[in-house]
Amino acid sequence: METLTSQNLSTQAWKLDTNHTVISFRIKHLGLAEISGSFKEYEGSMTLQSNKLDGAEVYLKISTDSIETGNTMRDNHLKTADFLDTALFPDITFVSTGFVPTEGNLYDLTGNLTLKGVTKNVSLKAEYRGKTKDMWGNEVVVFNLKGSIDRTEFGVEWFQLLDGNIPVIGKEIVLDMNVELIPDA
């Protein structure tokens, strides 16, 4: 694998390798535990302005109906108007407004996230893991993206307290994405 540097990326247009990308999240449950899940259907791209990552344009579209937490009853509830309202809002989108190096192989990725019809500017930490070739000799670029959002700021306001004023679920959604990109030829 090539060393961790964003220099000399020969391809300017990249798309998500949906066979190897994982878009996952976690949220507090009962004030102590965490529930994790992922989305199974998405598409995305990264367009470079030069042979470097600085200023890259990033786009991501996620199908809300593809949410999966390992519990069918919970997944069905998450698809209702209490949460994602997948019938009315079939997609979550992210359009970058900045991709700025911070130190080493780390970048600040900022952009407009639209969830349930509400658009807010969010910031993610992007770790460039490097460029390599897959088993067939195709170029692959790998990132890890992390961040968090307050679900209530996007209109996902379902709230229930248990005895002792313990919330069933928290407000903060922690995002953790393993992103593999391939040339968009």
Work out the strand percent.
Answer: over 45%
Name the CATH homologous superfamily.
Answer: Lipid/polyisoprenoid-binding, YceI-like
| Terminal Cα span | 22 Å
CATH topology description: Lipocalin
User: How many DSSP E strands?
Assistant: 13
**From the coordinates shown, what is the CATH architecture?**
Beta Barrel
Architecture overview:
The model is unreliable at 1-6 (pLDDT under 50). The chain has 1 helix and 13 strands. The relative contact order is 0.22. The strands form 2 sheets. Strands 1-4-5-7-8-9-10-13 form an 8-stranded antiparallel beta barrel. It has a two-stranded antiparallel ribbon with strand order 11-12. The protein has one helix at residues 72-78, and strands at 13-16, 22-29, 33-39, 42-47, 57-63, 67-68, 91-103, 106-115, 118-133, 139-150, 161-162, 166-167, 169-183. With 185 residues, the protein is mainly beta. It starts with 12 loop residues before the first strand and ends with a strand. The longest helix is centred in the middle third of the chain and has 7 residues, at 72-78.
Please give the structural blueprint.
Blueprint: E1 13-16, E2 22-29, E3 33-39, E4 42-47, E5 57-63, E6 67-68, H1 72-78, E7 91-103, E8 106-115, E9 118-133, E10 139-150, E11 161-162, E12 166-167, E13 169-183
Antiparallel strand pairs: 1-4, 1-13, 2-3, 2-13, 3-6, 4-5, 5-7, 7-8, 8-9, 9-10, 10-13, 11-12
